[in-house]
Amino acid sequence: MARALDLAWRGWGRVHPNPLVGAVVLAGGELIGEGYHAEFGGPHAEPQALRMAGDRARGATVVVTLEPCAHTGRQPPCAAALLAAGVGRVVIALPDPNPVAAGGAALLRTAGVAVDIGLMRSAAAAQNAAFLHHHRDAGRPFVALKLATSIDGRIADHSGRSKWISGPEAREWVQWLRAGFDAIAVGGRTAAADDPSLTVRGALVPRVAPRRVIFDRTLALPPDGALARTAADVPVTVVAAPEAAGGSRAAALRAVGATVAAAGSLREALAQLRADGVASLLVEGGGRLAGALLADGLVDRLYWVQSPLLLGERGVPAFSGIPAPALDDAARWRVVERRPLGADTLLVVDHPACSPES
Ligand SMILES: NC(=O)c1ccc[n+]([C@@H]2O[C@H](COP(=O)([O-])OP(=O)(O)OC[C@H]3O[C@@H](n4cnc5c(N)ncnc54)[C@H](OP(=O)(O)O)[C@@H]3O)[C@@H](O)[C@H]2O)c1
Predict the structure, then answer these.
(1) In whole angstroms, what is the distance from residue 75 CA to residue 112 CA?
(2) Is 46 marked active-site?
(3) Which of 98, 186, 306, 349 gets the highest tally of CB atoms within 10 A of its CB?
(4) What percent of the chain has pLDDT over 70?
(5) Cβ distance 36 to 11 under 8 Å?
(6) The pLDDT of residue 293
(7) Closest approach atom of ligand 1 to CA 163
(8) Which pLDDT does position 358 carry in this prediction?
(9) Would you say 339 and 304 are in contact if contact means Cβ atoms under 8 Å apart?
(10) Burial letters for 228-248: b for 16+ Cβ neighbours within 10 Å, e otherwise?
(11) Which is the catalytic residue, given 34, 46, 67, 284?
């Protein structure tokens, strides 16, 4: 299953809103086939793995990260392909939450195939967190926060400089991460301080370039900054307070091709983004926006890059304005991943509500 999960990652940036899926075929303790869902609308993992296994798939065990589909979409049903190949056993990490595609496990069992569900379920759920979120709550996008901080939790120095807290490996990883999201967001003060382009510039080219979103209540975003200048190439949405969205600043941004959305709250803004097709949103700071999203309970995942330096009390805090619960009342987030990125350390944690069982 670990190998199947590794294979599934190869679809990152290319298959969403479909799930990432990987599969391997085992016979006599030997790996005889492997496959993954590589492109949205393209072949699924199981038929790819079966093709590689050929006739040896008869009686073999197929290990797959998501329940094989039972419906005909852009591709024929995988459960039928497994039956046609005559496999003896199917091991599944995660049941399919999509009511349209689910039912593959039952179909296989009815036909006499041994089916086990739940192996490495947590890892599989973490890998497809945005997909699972969509089936749990289609009212707002899956929201992930990504921040690079010092050891003392600062995202910029006392003068507002944040380039660069993290090292080259972490910055390269961020390019890869961006490719798997529908939209990348920052707060208005970050847009003003850093003039970021928020585009994907790594080795992985996303199937659809993520939209750029700026939460900017007063519409301070300069119409000649990097984001506004490139709005005609990659869409830009600026979320403003209703009273600012009809003014001259809004008109100047619309004139350069940006969309200006009016929202009275972050929750309302997220609902609008979801209605506009944003199913997953990566928020890259700053601290006020991060804190406001956390305070409203609107964050599903945190990607925290911690760098080995100290920036002191006058540095910009990673999360401003979050409530201060008593220790016993503080929710413990679930650790999904931790690993080094060069000299930095990546910690990925999911909100407790984002559990593989829900
Ligand atoms: N190291 C990193 O990973 C990293 C990442 C990003 C930024 N940074 C640094 O962080 C600094 C900027 O961070 P910051 O904390 O000062 O500002 P920020 O979070 O970038 O900006 C806050 C923005 O969000 C807007 N906003 C919209 N709705 C909001 C709500 N409900 N609550 C609060 N804000 C809302 C604010 O509007 P209003 O103006 O109306 O309040 C403001 O424009 C810069 O120095 C930047 O370089 C570092």
Answers:
(1) 24
(2) yes
(3) 186
(4) 99
(5) yes
(6) 98
(7) 47
(8) 55
(9) no
(10) bbbbeebbbbbbbeeebbeee
(11) 46
At residue 356, the pLDDT reads 67
Question: Quick one: tokens of 284?
Answer: 């890259």
pLDDT of amino acid 101? 77
Give yes or no for residue 99 having a pLDDT over 90: no
Say if ligand 1 is within 6 A of residue 156 CB. yes
Cβ neighbours of residue 89 closer than 8 Å, sequence gap 6 or more: 60, 61, 62, 113, 114, 115, 116
**Best mutation site among 174, 198, 215, 243 for ligand 1, i.e. most ligand atoms within 8 A of its Cβ?**
215
The pLDDT confidence band at residue 72, using thresholds 50, 70 and 90, is confident
**Cis before 286 (ω within 30):** yes
> Residue 268 contacts by C-beta under 8 Å, 6 or more apart in sequence?
none
**What is the residue type of 196?**
P
Burial 2-16 (b: 16+ CB within 10 A, else e): eebbebbebbbbbbb
Non-local (6+) Cβ contacts of 313 within 8 A are none
What percentage of residues in the chain have a pLDDT greater than 90?
92
CB atoms within 10 A of CB 218: 12
Decide if pLDDT at 355 tops 80: no
98/177: higher pLDDT: 177
pTM (predicted TM-score): 0.96
Task: Judge contact between 57 and 86, C-beta under 8 A.
Answer: yes
What DSSP character marks residue 237? E
Helix (H) or strand (E) holding 183: strand 183-187
pLDDT value of position 353: 87
**Cα(29)–Cα(33) distance, integer angstroms:** 12
Work out the average pLDDT over 125-134.
Answer: 96
Q: Is 145 in the pocket of ligand 1 (CB under 6 A)?
A: no
Tally of residues, the chain: 358
Residue nearest to atom 40 of ligand 1 (CA): 217
Give me the sheet containing 259-262, strands edge to edge.
Answer: 259-262, 236-240, 211-215, 183-187, 280-283, 142-149, 301-306, 344-350, 334-341
Convert 322-352 to b/e letters by CB count within 10 Å (16 or more is b): eeeeeeeeeeebbebeeeebeebbbebbbbe
Say how far apart CA 2 and CA 37 lie, in whole Å: 16
Respond yes or no on whether the N-terminal peptide bond of residue 17 is cis (omega within 30° of 0).
yes
